[in-house]
Request: fold
Amino acid sequence: MNKTLILALTIAFSSFASANETSPVDLTTSVEGLKTAAVETSFETYDVDQDGLISLNEAATNEALSIAFTTLDIDQNGDLSEDEFSSFSE
Reply:
């Protein structure tokens, strides 16, 4: 698991836990919430120019993402959307 994803999960869980200290936690919802938060945080990390897409240049900072880029780029437009990127984080 990459360090960014671990950090994102830690931050998301901390925020989620403190917001729900007095109510019971639905594990299904919390896992999905953590996963969504992690994907969003990771996506924003790689989307350096904040155009809503990850270019191959931006992906080059992560070897695994760079290698998987062509496969993840389903519409073959040369950029990864957040939806395309989310399959990398699963």
Summary: The first helix runs from residue 3 to 19. The helical segments are 3-19, 27-46, 56-59, 63-72, 82-88. The two ends are 10 Å apart (CA to CA).
